[in-house]
Design a protein that fits this description.
about 400 residues, globular, 5-stranded parallel β-sheet, binds FE3-S4 cluster, alpha/beta
Protein backbone atom coordinates (compact mmCIF):
# COMPACT_ATOMS: atom_id res chain seq x y z
CA UNK A 1 0.00 0.00 0.00
CA UNK A 2 1.27 3.51 -0.83
CA UNK A 3 1.64 5.56 2.32
CA UNK A 4 2.62 9.22 2.40
CA UNK A 5 5.60 10.32 4.49
CA UNK A 6 3.23 11.62 7.15
CA UNK A 7 1.40 8.28 7.26
CA UNK A 8 4.71 6.40 7.49
CA UNK A 9 5.70 8.62 10.43
CA UNK A 10 2.49 7.68 12.28
CA UNK A 11 3.18 4.00 11.59
CA UNK A 12 6.69 4.43 13.01
CA UNK A 13 5.28 5.78 16.26
CA UNK A 14 6.40 9.37 15.78
CA UNK A 15 2.99 10.69 16.86
CA UNK A 16 2.49 8.47 19.89
CA UNK A 17 1.38 4.97 20.66
CA UNK A 18 -2.37 5.57 20.22
CA UNK A 19 -2.01 6.82 16.62
CA UNK A 20 0.58 4.13 15.86
CA UNK A 21 -1.81 1.37 16.95
CA UNK A 22 -4.58 2.96 14.90
CA UNK A 23 -2.36 3.09 11.80
CA UNK A 24 -1.28 -0.52 12.28
CA UNK A 25 -4.92 -1.62 12.30
CA UNK A 26 -6.04 0.47 9.33
CA UNK A 27 -3.06 -0.56 7.17
CA UNK A 28 -3.50 -4.22 8.15
CA UNK A 29 -7.15 -4.07 7.01
CA UNK A 30 -6.08 -2.28 3.85
CA UNK A 31 -3.57 -5.03 3.02
CA UNK A 32 -6.16 -7.78 3.61
CA UNK A 33 -8.67 -6.09 1.29
CA UNK A 34 -6.18 -4.94 -1.36
CA UNK A 35 -6.33 -1.17 -0.76
CA UNK A 36 -3.70 0.82 -2.68
CA UNK A 37 -3.81 3.83 -0.37
CA UNK A 38 -5.64 5.51 2.49
CA UNK A 39 -8.45 8.01 1.98
CA UNK A 40 -9.39 11.00 4.17
CA UNK A 41 -12.70 10.69 5.99
CA UNK A 42 -15.06 13.42 7.16
CA UNK A 43 -16.68 11.55 10.06
CA UNK A 44 -16.84 8.30 11.98
CA UNK A 45 -19.56 6.48 13.88
CA UNK A 46 -18.40 3.94 16.43
CA UNK A 47 -19.98 0.75 17.69
CA UNK A 48 -18.69 -1.53 20.44
CA UNK A 49 -20.06 0.65 23.17
CA UNK A 50 -22.20 -1.68 25.30
CA UNK A 51 -20.50 -3.38 28.22
CA UNK A 52 -22.69 -6.38 27.42
CA UNK A 53 -21.07 -6.82 24.00
CA UNK A 54 -17.45 -5.75 24.64
CA UNK A 55 -17.02 -7.00 28.22
CA UNK A 56 -13.89 -6.46 30.31
CA UNK A 57 -11.61 -7.17 27.33
CA UNK A 58 -13.13 -4.28 25.38
CA UNK A 59 -13.02 -2.02 28.39
CA UNK A 60 -9.29 -2.77 28.82
CA UNK A 61 -8.69 -2.07 25.09
CA UNK A 62 -10.33 1.36 25.49
CA UNK A 63 -8.34 2.07 28.69
CA UNK A 64 -5.13 1.27 26.76
CA UNK A 65 -6.11 3.50 23.84
CA UNK A 66 -6.80 6.42 26.17
CA UNK A 67 -3.57 5.79 28.10
CA UNK A 68 -1.72 5.87 24.74
CA UNK A 69 -3.07 9.37 24.10
CA UNK A 70 -5.60 8.41 21.43
CA UNK A 71 -7.88 11.25 20.27
CA UNK A 72 -10.22 11.32 17.31
CA UNK A 73 -9.40 13.79 14.56
CA UNK A 74 -12.79 13.91 12.78
CA UNK A 75 -16.33 14.41 14.17
CA UNK A 76 -17.29 11.05 15.67
CA UNK A 77 -20.43 9.72 17.33
CA UNK A 78 -21.16 6.66 19.44
CA UNK A 79 -23.67 3.82 19.07
CA UNK A 80 -26.17 2.79 21.79
CA UNK A 81 -24.81 1.43 25.06
CA UNK A 82 -26.28 -1.15 27.45
CA UNK A 83 -28.49 1.25 29.38
CA UNK A 84 -30.03 4.69 29.59
CA UNK A 85 -27.21 6.54 31.35
CA UNK A 86 -29.56 8.03 33.95
CA UNK A 87 -32.62 5.70 33.98
CA UNK A 88 -30.83 2.36 34.04
CA UNK A 89 -32.59 1.19 37.21
CA UNK A 90 -35.89 1.19 35.29
CA UNK A 91 -34.25 -1.31 32.92
CA UNK A 92 -33.34 -3.74 35.76
CA UNK A 93 -29.64 -3.08 35.13
CA UNK A 94 -27.34 -3.92 38.04
CA UNK A 95 -25.11 -1.40 39.78
CA UNK A 96 -21.99 -3.38 38.74
CA UNK A 97 -22.99 -3.29 35.05
CA UNK A 98 -23.88 0.40 35.27
CA UNK A 99 -20.51 1.42 36.71
CA UNK A 100 -18.59 -0.36 33.94
CA UNK A 101 -20.92 1.06 31.30
CA UNK A 102 -20.49 4.61 32.57
CA UNK A 103 -16.70 4.10 32.50
CA UNK A 104 -16.88 2.99 28.84
CA UNK A 105 -18.87 6.11 27.94
CA UNK A 106 -16.30 8.28 29.75
CA UNK A 107 -13.42 6.63 27.90
CA UNK A 108 -15.00 7.28 24.52
CA UNK A 109 -15.73 10.85 25.61
CA UNK A 110 -12.13 11.41 26.65
CA UNK A 111 -10.99 10.49 23.14
CA UNK A 112 -13.12 13.37 21.82
CA UNK A 113 -16.07 11.25 20.65
CA UNK A 114 -19.55 12.73 21.03
CA UNK A 115 -21.25 10.29 23.36
CA UNK A 116 -24.59 10.56 21.58
CA UNK A 117 -25.18 6.82 22.04
CA UNK A 118 -27.62 6.49 19.16
CA UNK A 119 -27.76 4.34 16.03
CA UNK A 120 -29.48 7.14 14.05
CA UNK A 121 -26.87 9.92 14.25
CA UNK A 122 -27.80 10.78 10.65
CA UNK A 123 -30.99 12.47 11.94
CA UNK A 124 -28.98 15.21 13.60
CA UNK A 125 -25.69 14.62 15.40
CA UNK A 126 -23.64 13.33 12.47
CA UNK A 127 -24.93 13.86 8.93
CA UNK A 128 -22.55 13.03 6.08
CA UNK A 129 -22.98 14.53 2.62
CA UNK A 130 -23.22 12.92 -0.80
CA UNK A 131 -19.80 11.61 -1.83
CA UNK A 132 -18.20 11.97 1.61
CA UNK A 133 -15.83 9.18 2.61
CA UNK A 134 -16.64 8.15 6.20
CA UNK A 135 -15.87 5.23 8.52
CA UNK A 136 -19.03 4.03 10.13
CA UNK A 137 -19.68 0.95 12.20
CA UNK A 138 -23.28 -0.02 13.08
CA UNK A 139 -24.66 -1.96 10.18
CA UNK A 140 -28.03 -0.18 9.91
CA UNK A 141 -26.57 3.32 10.08
CA UNK A 142 -23.77 2.69 7.61
CA UNK A 143 -26.21 1.18 5.13
CA UNK A 144 -28.47 4.24 5.54
CA UNK A 145 -25.66 6.74 4.88
CA UNK A 146 -24.26 4.70 1.97
CA UNK A 147 -27.64 4.26 0.32
CA UNK A 148 -29.97 7.10 1.26
CA UNK A 149 -27.32 9.84 1.50
CA UNK A 150 -24.69 8.52 -0.92
CA UNK A 151 -21.77 8.80 1.51
CA UNK A 152 -19.13 6.06 1.26
CA UNK A 153 -18.24 3.62 3.99
CA UNK A 154 -17.39 -0.02 4.34
CA UNK A 155 -19.04 -2.17 6.96
CA UNK A 156 -16.54 -1.20 9.65
CA UNK A 157 -16.13 -3.07 12.91
CA UNK A 158 -15.86 -1.11 16.17
CA UNK A 159 -12.02 -1.15 16.42
CA UNK A 160 -11.57 -0.34 12.69
CA UNK A 161 -13.93 2.64 12.91
CA UNK A 162 -12.19 3.89 16.06
CA UNK A 163 -8.78 3.60 14.39
CA UNK A 164 -10.07 5.49 11.35
CA UNK A 165 -11.57 8.18 13.60
CA UNK A 166 -8.21 8.65 15.33
CA UNK A 167 -6.35 8.99 12.03
CA UNK A 168 -9.03 10.81 10.05
CA UNK A 169 -8.33 8.23 7.36
CA UNK A 170 -9.38 4.76 6.34
CA UNK A 171 -8.16 2.21 3.81
CA UNK A 172 -9.48 2.94 0.33
CA UNK A 173 -11.21 -0.27 -0.78
CA UNK A 174 -14.68 -1.79 -1.07
CA UNK A 175 -17.56 0.68 -1.07
CA UNK A 176 -15.21 3.67 -1.18
CA UNK A 177 -14.58 2.79 -4.85
CA UNK A 178 -17.06 3.50 -7.69
CA UNK A 179 -16.70 0.02 -9.17
CA UNK A 180 -18.05 -1.64 -6.02
CA UNK A 181 -21.13 0.59 -5.75
CA UNK A 182 -22.76 -0.84 -8.88
CA UNK A 183 -26.01 -2.79 -8.42
CA UNK A 184 -25.68 -6.58 -8.60
CA UNK A 185 -29.37 -7.54 -8.75
CA UNK A 186 -32.75 -5.87 -9.32
CA UNK A 187 -35.44 -6.33 -6.67
CA UNK A 188 -38.96 -5.91 -7.99
CA UNK A 189 -40.73 -5.08 -4.72
CA UNK A 190 -44.45 -5.36 -4.13
CA UNK A 191 -45.21 -4.08 -0.61
CA UNK A 192 -47.94 -1.98 1.05
CA UNK A 193 -45.57 0.91 1.81
CA UNK A 194 -45.86 0.83 5.62
CA UNK A 195 -42.64 1.07 7.62
CA UNK A 196 -43.22 -2.48 8.84
CA UNK A 197 -43.51 -3.71 5.24
CA UNK A 198 -40.09 -2.16 4.53
CA UNK A 199 -38.70 -4.08 7.49
CA UNK A 200 -40.14 -7.35 6.13
CA UNK A 201 -38.90 -6.47 2.64
CA UNK A 202 -35.39 -6.05 4.01
CA UNK A 203 -35.65 -9.35 5.85
CA UNK A 204 -36.83 -11.12 2.70
CA UNK A 205 -34.09 -9.60 0.52
CA UNK A 206 -31.39 -10.49 3.04
CA UNK A 207 -32.74 -14.05 3.21
CA UNK A 208 -32.84 -14.24 -0.58
CA UNK A 209 -29.49 -12.76 -1.68
CA UNK A 210 -27.43 -12.49 1.54
CA UNK A 211 -24.95 -10.05 0.08
CA UNK A 212 -24.48 -7.73 -2.90
CA UNK A 213 -25.94 -4.35 -3.93
CA UNK A 214 -29.68 -4.58 -4.61
CA UNK A 215 -31.39 -2.07 -6.91
CA UNK A 216 -35.02 -1.66 -5.93
CA UNK A 217 -37.90 -0.96 -8.25
CA UNK A 218 -41.39 -0.28 -6.91
CA UNK A 219 -40.53 1.51 -3.65
CA UNK A 220 -40.07 5.14 -2.65
CA UNK A 221 -38.53 5.09 0.83
CA UNK A 222 -38.30 8.23 2.96
CA UNK A 223 -36.16 8.44 6.12
CA UNK A 224 -38.20 6.08 8.33
CA UNK A 225 -38.69 3.49 5.58
CA UNK A 226 -35.03 3.62 4.53
CA UNK A 227 -34.00 3.23 8.17
CA UNK A 228 -36.12 0.07 8.53
CA UNK A 229 -34.96 -1.35 5.19
CA UNK A 230 -31.28 -0.67 5.90
CA UNK A 231 -31.44 -2.29 9.33
CA UNK A 232 -33.29 -5.38 8.15
CA UNK A 233 -31.03 -6.15 5.17
CA UNK A 234 -27.91 -5.62 7.26
CA UNK A 235 -29.16 -8.13 9.84
CA UNK A 236 -30.76 -10.84 7.69
CA UNK A 237 -27.90 -10.53 5.20
CA UNK A 238 -24.76 -8.43 5.14
CA UNK A 239 -25.98 -5.78 2.72
CA UNK A 240 -24.33 -2.40 3.24
CA UNK A 241 -25.54 -0.51 0.15
CA UNK A 242 -28.67 -0.46 -1.98
CA UNK A 243 -30.25 1.84 -4.53
CA UNK A 244 -33.93 2.69 -4.97
CA UNK A 245 -35.02 3.83 -8.42
CA UNK A 246 -36.07 7.48 -8.43
CA UNK A 247 -35.21 7.97 -4.75
CA UNK A 248 -31.63 7.34 -3.66
CA UNK A 249 -28.94 9.70 -4.96
CA UNK A 250 -26.82 7.26 -6.98
CA UNK A 251 -29.63 5.14 -8.46
CA UNK A 252 -29.71 7.11 -11.73
CA UNK A 253 -26.02 6.39 -12.42
CA UNK A 254 -26.53 2.76 -13.44
CA UNK A 255 -27.92 0.74 -16.32
CA UNK A 256 -29.58 -2.27 -14.71
CA UNK A 257 -31.20 -3.72 -17.83
CA UNK A 258 -28.93 -6.80 -17.89
CA UNK A 259 -29.25 -7.72 -14.22
CA UNK A 260 -31.17 -10.64 -12.78
CA UNK A 261 -34.60 -9.59 -11.40
CA UNK A 262 -35.98 -11.08 -8.18
CA UNK A 263 -39.61 -10.50 -7.26
CA UNK A 264 -40.41 -9.95 -3.58
CA UNK A 265 -44.13 -9.98 -2.84
CA UNK A 266 -46.72 -11.51 -0.54
CA UNK A 267 -45.25 -15.02 -0.46
CA UNK A 268 -41.70 -13.83 0.38
CA UNK A 269 -42.94 -11.33 2.99
CA UNK A 270 -44.95 -14.11 4.66
CA UNK A 271 -41.82 -16.31 4.83
CA UNK A 272 -39.90 -13.39 6.36
CA UNK A 273 -42.68 -12.78 8.88
CA UNK A 274 -42.82 -16.46 9.85
CA UNK A 275 -39.06 -16.56 10.40
CA UNK A 276 -39.22 -13.60 12.80
CA UNK A 277 -42.29 -14.66 14.77
CA UNK A 278 -41.60 -17.45 17.23
CA UNK A 279 -43.21 -16.20 20.47
CA UNK A 280 -47.00 -16.06 20.79
CA UNK A 281 -46.93 -13.88 23.90
CA UNK A 282 -44.41 -11.41 25.32
CA UNK A 283 -43.10 -9.97 28.59
CA UNK A 284 -41.44 -6.94 27.00
CA UNK A 285 -42.41 -4.85 24.00
CA UNK A 286 -39.45 -2.81 22.80
CA UNK A 287 -39.92 -0.29 20.01
CA UNK A 288 -37.24 1.83 18.40
CA UNK A 289 -34.83 -0.32 16.41
CA UNK A 290 -33.22 1.67 14.87
CA UNK A 291 -33.91 4.55 17.27
CA UNK A 292 -37.23 6.35 16.83
CA UNK A 293 -37.27 9.54 14.77
CA UNK A 294 -39.22 12.64 15.72
CA UNK A 295 -41.94 11.69 13.21
CA UNK A 296 -42.26 8.21 14.71
CA UNK A 297 -42.47 9.67 18.23
CA UNK A 298 -45.42 11.84 17.07
CA UNK A 299 -47.11 8.87 15.39
CA UNK A 300 -46.79 6.62 18.43
CA UNK A 301 -47.98 9.32 20.82
CA UNK A 302 -51.03 10.03 18.68
CA UNK A 303 -51.81 6.28 18.50
CA UNK A 304 -51.56 6.01 22.31
CA UNK A 305 -53.39 9.20 23.23
CA UNK A 306 -56.55 8.48 25.22
CA UNK A 307 -55.81 4.73 25.53
CA UNK A 308 -54.99 2.73 28.67
CA UNK A 309 -52.51 -0.10 29.17
CA UNK A 310 -54.42 -3.00 30.71
CA UNK A 311 -51.75 -5.73 30.72
CA UNK A 312 -49.63 -4.91 33.75
CA UNK A 313 -47.49 -8.02 33.20
CA UNK A 314 -45.99 -6.62 29.97
CA UNK A 315 -43.35 -3.87 30.06
CA UNK A 316 -43.04 -1.43 27.18
CA UNK A 317 -39.82 0.40 26.27
CA UNK A 318 -39.47 3.08 23.63
CA UNK A 319 -35.90 3.63 22.43
CA UNK A 320 -34.62 6.83 20.86
CA UNK A 321 -31.76 9.29 21.14
CA UNK A 322 -31.51 11.85 23.94
CA UNK A 323 -31.66 14.54 21.26
CA UNK A 324 -35.02 13.34 19.90
CA UNK A 325 -36.41 12.68 23.40
CA UNK A 326 -35.63 16.28 24.36
CA UNK A 327 -37.31 17.56 21.20
CA UNK A 328 -40.62 15.79 21.87
CA UNK A 329 -41.73 16.53 25.46
CA UNK A 330 -45.46 16.30 24.68
CA UNK A 331 -45.09 12.92 22.98
CA UNK A 332 -42.86 11.67 25.80
CA UNK A 333 -45.53 12.59 28.38
CA UNK A 334 -48.13 10.45 26.59
CA UNK A 335 -45.74 7.56 25.89
CA UNK A 336 -44.47 7.44 29.48
CA UNK A 337 -47.96 6.42 30.65
CA UNK A 338 -47.20 3.12 28.88
CA UNK A 339 -43.49 2.73 29.54
CA UNK A 340 -40.18 4.58 29.73
CA UNK A 341 -38.85 6.51 26.75
CA UNK A 342 -35.22 5.44 26.98
CA UNK A 343 -32.25 7.18 25.42
CA UNK A 344 -28.69 5.89 24.81
CA UNK A 345 -29.69 2.22 24.54
CA UNK A 346 -31.79 -0.45 22.89
CA UNK A 347 -33.37 -3.85 23.49
CA UNK A 348 -30.50 -5.71 21.81
CA UNK A 349 -27.45 -4.19 23.47
CA UNK A 350 -29.07 -3.93 26.93
CA UNK A 351 -28.76 -7.00 29.19
CA UNK A 352 -32.47 -7.87 28.90
CA UNK A 353 -31.82 -11.62 29.14
CA UNK A 354 -31.51 -11.20 32.91
CA UNK A 355 -35.14 -10.04 33.16
CA UNK A 356 -37.14 -11.25 30.15
CA UNK A 357 -37.41 -14.30 27.92
CA UNK A 358 -40.01 -13.24 25.30
CA UNK A 359 -39.82 -9.87 23.58
CA UNK A 360 -41.94 -8.15 20.94
CA UNK A 361 -40.50 -5.75 18.39
CA UNK A 362 -41.57 -4.07 15.15
CA UNK A 363 -38.05 -4.39 13.73
CA UNK A 364 -36.72 -7.23 11.60
CA UNK A 365 -33.21 -6.34 12.78
CA UNK A 366 -34.18 -6.78 16.43
CA UNK A 367 -36.17 -9.85 15.43
CA UNK A 368 -32.95 -11.42 14.15
CA UNK A 369 -30.78 -10.45 17.11
CA UNK A 370 -33.13 -10.94 20.07
CA UNK A 371 -32.82 -14.75 19.84
CA UNK A 372 -29.08 -14.81 19.15
CA UNK A 373 -27.74 -11.98 21.33
CA UNK A 374 -30.40 -11.84 24.06
CA UNK A 375 -31.72 -15.43 24.38
CA UNK A 376 -35.26 -14.22 23.63
CA UNK A 377 -38.18 -15.77 21.84
CA UNK A 378 -39.18 -12.94 19.54
CA UNK A 379 -42.45 -11.62 18.18
CA UNK A 380 -42.26 -9.21 15.24
CA UNK A 381 -45.40 -7.21 14.38
CA UNK A 382 -46.20 -3.67 13.39
CA UNK A 383 -46.42 -1.11 16.18
CA UNK A 384 -50.21 -0.91 16.33
CA UNK A 385 -50.55 -4.70 16.57
CA UNK A 386 -47.92 -4.94 19.30
CA UNK A 387 -49.26 -2.10 21.41
CA UNK A 388 -52.89 -2.87 20.64
CA UNK A 389 -52.48 -6.30 22.25
CA UNK A 390 -51.75 -4.80 25.68
CA UNK A 391 -54.62 -2.29 25.73
FE1 LIG B 1 -29.97 0.40 16.88
FE2 LIG B 1 -30.00 -1.46 18.68
FE3 LIG B 1 -31.39 -1.77 16.52
S1 LIG B 1 -28.23 -0.36 18.03
S2 LIG B 1 -30.29 -0.68 14.97
S3 LIG B 1 -31.72 -0.21 18.09
S4 LIG B 1 -30.20 -3.36 17.51
Amino acid sequence: MDLTRAEEAILNGEEGEGRQKAMELVTALGKIYGAESLVDITSAHLSGASYKTIGDGGLKYLEDMVAGGAKVSVPSTLNPVGMDRTRWREMHVTEAFAQKQLRIIDLYGSMGIKTTCSCTPYTGANVPKLGDHVAWAESSALSFVNSFIGARTNREGGPGALAAAILGKTANYGLHLDKNRKPTVVIDADIDGSVFSYSLLGQAVGMSIGTGVPYFKGIKPQVEEAKALSAAMAASGSIALYHAEGTTPEAGNFDVSDLEVIHIGEKELKAAYDKLNVADDVELIAIGCPHLTEKEMHQIASFLKGKKKVRKDVEIWFCTSAEIRDKCPDDVRIMEEFGPVLADTCMVVAPIEGSFSRTGTNSAKAGNYLPTLCSQKAMCRDISALLGAVM
